[in-house]
Every structure is written in structure tokens, then in C-alpha cells.
Amino acid sequence: MQVPVFIKCFRGDLLPSATLLPFSPVKLALLVGWVYLCLYLVQRVQFSALVSKKYKPVANITTLFTGPVLLLLLQIIETIRNIRASDENFIKTIMEQLQNLIASIKSSGFVKPRNTQEITLLNSSGRSIKDIYGQDKNQKQRSHILELTEQIVLTAINDRASDILIDPRDEANYTVRYRVDGMLRLAYEIDTEVSKAVINSIKAVSDMDIAERRRPQDGSFIAKIDDSTCSFRVSSAGVINGEKLSIRILNRQAASLTINDIGFSQKQQKVIRDAISKPAGMILICGPTGSGKTTTMYGMLNEIDFFTHNVITVEDPIECVLPNTSQIEVNPKADITFAKTLRSMLRQDPDVICVGEIRDEETASIALRAAQTGHLVMATLHCNSNASALVRLMDLGITPLLLASGLSVLISQRLVRKLCSHCKTRAELTPSQIHDFRRRKINYANIFQANGCEQCNGTGYYGRTAICDILVLNDALKNGIVNNEMLLAQLKKEGDQKGKSNLQKQGVKKIVSGITGLEELKRVVG
Q1: Cross-strand partners of 417
Q2: In CATH terms, are 106-249 and 253-417+464-515 the same topology?
């Protein structure tokens, strides 16, 4: 086998002995690489929380000569301290440290993202984030920050996240976490200075004041990814060690969902379609924050023929655009409130009115009166159960007569994670669980449990589905609300427990169908 000529040159085979290189190119390259590594690690030590300010000069000099040895030693000491303080498993703690390290390396730019999608962040007027910052002498450094900002947003979208949380962990580091399928997970760990620059770039594109770090602010921006767009709602707040940023990723798929896609059973779908087909009445969707109320409302709206019905919505904010509907966004600064918008909507000859959220007595009263006067009204309310919804409406000042005559259907819902179809395994049931299923005559042959794979990012779950408790207000219940003042107290006491029981029954149906697991239902409902 012949040796290439250029290799022979390096070895000196083709050079006279007098002209041999006085150094090894490979050793020189390794030396230069070592010097740069030591300089980089000195910077890491300077901003590291593992070293107190008092000893930072000594640590910097030591790191300059020893390289990663000192950092490795400090990390081992910190890991041992965490294990002793929290009594956690050693392997679990080591895995968490490795995840933090990988996230830190990704954020530093040493690992380039594999994703080739192009993303552009735009403000409400359509200006890109690069146009907002413009050109200046710090263009190279700023370009790195903007690329990191875009990558954080793009990764969140590709990972199906509903929220991005950027908040300080301590004086030296910030964490970037994604809420995927309702659960938070760590995505990046970034130095404080870099994180502040990322936060400022997001605030700038969201039309927020970057100089104000203590007073809470709200804003919004848009991301253009290839041929599609995605909307974001941003909220900032001053906290200990810095500033916290919460970014809500508005659901782009809600515009195409129907009630069949949300998770309702066939019987429940029939009840909802019957309510939607009626010309008047209010359908109220209730549940805690993050239970999918707005998505369900969009799913019900998609069951309506927009060409034969005049549909008007008032939302805060508009989460997705529905074609052939009139959507109005609440803006308190411009004196556009839910109540004032509802009054004006009634003069626009609507067939269907959609209220994003009932927050006060005036909005609730106008919406219920609209349901009385020949309009189909859909609305959401923050509460735990159908019984709690009735009690809260009464607490807002709604009279029993107006409540009974306007309200038609109450829907209380929760979201449970769906088991990953690629890795779910047969559940290992305990003898007591098997006995309980047999006693209740439930077939437990198709019960699965979470396992974890690359497809679901090791969680064992992929996507979510709704479990619902539907209450139709029939004549007997309406008469009871109007005539019996003690009924609401009884509903509050017994209705919450009954609603929880109904949600559990719907959840068990999804468990025996292999859609979700026992642990997930217990986590959501109890």
C-alpha cells in the first residue's frame, strides 16, 4: 500500500535531513487546542456557581493550567453534596447532571442543531427580530444571540411544547424549560449574561420595554417557519436573581379539530351535537387552567356551518384564525373589554356567540341574556367541576332565574396524556388491582403502562386526550335551581365528588382501551 505524498512530507520522507521540521504539526495543533480549551473553561469558572467569588481568581489561574480537571473535581463535589442533601438515588442524580451538561453544551453553540428548518421571529407589525436590532459594531455577538433565541423557539415547536419558561436558577445560570403534554422538562441551561440577552431579544420582538425588568409586562410575537406561522403570547415578571419569561405557544391545530378529535365518547358527542344544533342556549365549558377548554370550544365551533350562520367570537387572545367567522380580540388598553364587545356583538345579528372566558358579573349576565334571546352562546369558565360552575355563577351575582333559563349544557373536562404507541407495555397489576377490576367486572386485558423510547423522548407518553363530565340542565334541574335556594349548597357538597367520580369513570374507559395508564389518571383526577 502506497503512502500519500503529503503524509511523506509531514514525516520527512521526501525532505532532506537538513530541512526536517523542528516540531510535530499534530502536537502543535493539540497544544493550540488545549490552550483554547483552558481559556474557555476559565470563562466557565468565572460565571460558575460552584466557586465562590472569594476564590474565583485562584480557580481561574488553576483552570488555566489544569484545564477541565478542576471543573470535574468541583462537579463531583457538588454532586455528592446534592445526593447527601436530597437523599436521592446516585444514578438518578448523575443522569440529571449529564442532562444539564448536554443542555449547556447545546446552548453554548459547540453542537450545531440538526434541524434545517428556517424560522423568522416577527413582531405584531411584521418586522423581523433582525430588522428591529439593525446593524451595529456588535453584530457578530448579537447574531449568535438571535440564532440561539430562534433555536429555542423552533425546538419548542418541534417538540410540541405548549409553553416555554425561561427563569433564573441562581446568580450564574438560567434554565429554559418546555411544557410538553402538560409536563415540564429541562431543555437548556444557559449563562446569565447570555440568558439576559435572549430575554431582551424576545421582549424586543414582542413590543415590550427591555429596560423595565421589575414591572410585569405582556406582549406577543409571531414565528414564520417555512410556509407556516405560529403565534406566541409572552409574559415577563421580575423575580429573585433576575427576570422570568413565560411564553405560551398558541395551538395552531385547533382550527381544524372537531369534537371527534378531542376525546369525547360517541354518547357524549351526540349530547354536544344536539346542544349545538339548537338555536339558543349556553354551552359552558369549565375546568382548571391548561385543561383544554379553548380547544374544545374551537372543536364545537368547527361543527357549525359558517356559511349559513353568523359566528362572532370575543377572545383574549385569539389563539387561531377561523375562516368565515368574525373574531374580536380583547384589548383593555384600548377599552375593548368582554362586556363592551358583547353588547356591540348583539347589534351585529349573530347566530352564534363565542366568549373566550367569563371573568366578571357583567360578562356572565350579558352572555346568559343573549342565550335567552335566541342566540347560541359558547363560553369557558375557570372552575373544578360542573357544580362549582353553578356556584361560581351565583357568586358572581347571577340570579337563579337567569341561570336556569339561559344555561343549557355544562362540560367539565381534564386532559390526560396518551401512552406512546411505540413503546407501551402490558401493565404489571398488583393482586389488589386485579381483584378490584374483577369486582367491578372490568376487563383488564388491554391495560398498558408507560415505558419510554426515543419517539416520546423517554416519557412513555405522546399527545393528550380529554376526559369529560357532561351535565345537561333538564327541566327538573332548572326548577330546582329556581325554587330551592339550598340546592346550590347541596350541589357544591355532593356535585364536586360526583363530578370527580364521573371523570374517573371516563378515565377508566380510556385505560381499559389502552389509551392512557393508571398512574396518569391518578395524577390528573386523583
Answers
A1: 464
A2: no
pLDDT tens digits, residue range 10-59?
444 544 444 455 657 777 777 777 777 777 777 666 655 566 666 777 77
Q: Are 297 and 339 in contact (CB under 8 A)?
A: no
Question: 458-472: per-residue pLDDT in tens?
Answer: 889 999 999 999 999
Q: Are strands 425-426 and 407-419 parallel, antiparallel or unpaired?
A: unpaired
Domain boundaries, the chain: 23-87, 106-249, 253-417+464-515
CA dihedral 331, 336, 340, 344 (to 10 degrees): -110
B/e letters for 84-107, b = 16+ CB within 10 Å, e = fewer, are: eeeeeeeeeeeeeeeebeebbebb
Domain 253-417+464-515 -> CATH class: alpha beta
pLDDT tens for each residue of 179-226: 999 999 999 888 888 999 999 999 999 999 998 888 999 998 999 887
C-alpha to C-alpha distance for 123 and 227, rounded to whole angstroms: 17
Would you tell me which CATH number, out of the four given (3.30.450.20, 3.30.450.90, 3.40.50.1820, 3.30.465.10), belongs to the domain 106-249? Answer: 3.30.450.90
**pTM reported for the whole predicted model:** 0.73
Q: Which is nearest to 411 in space by CA: 268, 291, 259, 285? A: 285
